Amino acid sequence: MSTTVQGQPVAGSGITADEIELRRSFWHATLHFCRREPLGAFGMLIVIIMAVTGAFAELLAPYSPTANDFMTMTEAPSWAHWLGTDQFGRDLLSRIIYGARTALIVGLTSAIVGGFAGLVLGVASAYFGGALDLVFQRIFDIVMAFPLIIMALAMVAIFGTGVHNVIIAITIPLIPRCARVVRSSALAIREIPYVDAARACGFSHSRIILRHMVPNVMAPFLIMLTAFVGQAILAEASLSYLGLGVQEPTPAWGLMLQGGAEEYASTAPWIAIFPGLAIALTVFGVSLFGDALRDVLDPKLRER
Amino acid sequence: MYQYVAKRVLLVIPTLIGAAALVFILMRLIPGDICVVRLGSGGGSFDPRAVTQCHQDLGLDRPLIVQFLDFLWGIFTFNYGISMWSGKPVSMEILTRLPISLEIALLATAIAILIAVPLGTISALKQNTWLDVVVRTLAIGGIATPSFWLGIISILFVLDLTNAITGTPWMPPIDYVPIWQDPIRNLSMAFLPAITVGYRYAAVSMRMTRSAMLEVLREDYIRTARAKGLIEKLVINRHALKNALLPVVTVIGIEFAFLIGGLVVTEQVFNLNGIGRLFVQAVQNQDYTLTQALVMLTVVIFVFSNLIVHLCYAWLDPRIRFA
Asked: Chain B residues with CB inside 8 Å of A266's CB?
């Protein structure tokens, strides 16, 4: 064991012993997770690869995703174009690489913003109870009566198309779905005496909610969050496929399947196959990871 | 039981009114004056008096609360107004498109149940074997695969397969013929879309069956049933499955409403003139009367399938109705 005093910097490194402990426990937890849930680790790997691909699209893509080349229209996969070209001669691999960025930006932003808004509303609803809870509950009920894609379509009708509006359109229907789950977990926590103890100490509502209740609903929240990422990616792909989501020339997987994919399906099947495969693989990875996370975090399932 | 049914039915009313209010507000949030959009779609200039006239025709000059009450009354009397795009009554537009969507939805539900319940049960019984891994992978695949892509791929597959066998590629028909007139033509139209939508549905229900079954199999009464020497088949069918099916019924009921969402995309792939496609067209054409009627229709379907789930629940599980 090191002889440093807790909170004091380790000689010459500028990092405190607490931080080292935290980092060590993070890597330890990750390693433990990979050993326990190899399938989940595989899912995580897929997501990481997709994220890196999206982040470094400029470096990885062999061609510009929007450059038309009328000499190489609907070309089959070859050494020059690994996944072939579409009906405008654009390189499919490059478009899929840039599409990863669009999918993950929309998926992560919608899931995180929608999830956190739901977290705050859900915990607040459970903590304050009474009339506020009743009103929130009814509003959640009403919004949840709209299937996700229907609500998103209605939102697109109001806000219009494009990446930003698609994010808003997908985020809003996710909020009550998260709030509902978080609320039911938070209700159980509210009954535990330490919340009363915190109140007796004179802590403010926001402190009790943020410091004492939120950390205890993290398990169901994280499970929801991963599910949301998958749902949001699928919803964005569906909207873009319908022509009501991300618009040309922004490369998006759903958009790549629109129009040309069906028209050229029998002569150039690669146009239809690869973008869909990218969507399915990403959501598959997210779902595998989410399932494993649920198994690890949910004590009810731990014994199985 | 009657008290329970009455309570559940009464709870539906505030949700429906709230949803109607939300739809009403959302449609009024859409930027731009509907009449200006309508009159200006030709590109030329128009008489401002025409806008006033149009407002009067559509009843937009009345107070909002009167408009809302009118909209609510329309929902109950099946009077949804006139489609702003085609000029035909909205209820007629919907009714002509409804059978095709309803048939695909019911067929998809049947496919989902037929796949999900047996596979989910086997997966739970053979937990952590290769069979379980295969079923679980198939289930996650169903959740991950976008239905429109599955549709495109299945069309591609059918095209190539028929081309290889008969020499001429065959595509499923796209026009709707009632099943009692030409069952083969009807089913060949509905079957592929139903599988496409049904796969996701089956996947969700399969996962639910599996986890419900795993939970039930750990109950004491299953151990008792086995201890008293009951054959395994009876333990599973009579004791385990019957109890495990409760949450599965919920999922099937709730997902049924979400099928409409799946249909929005699938009908586009298969070029079918159902309500899903009508919805997309309504949004694209900025046809607000039609959009609000269709959104309301999905909400009504959702709320009522939820109601049916709760009533089924009470019927299947006496503990709920007497609680």
From this structure: 156, 159-160, 169
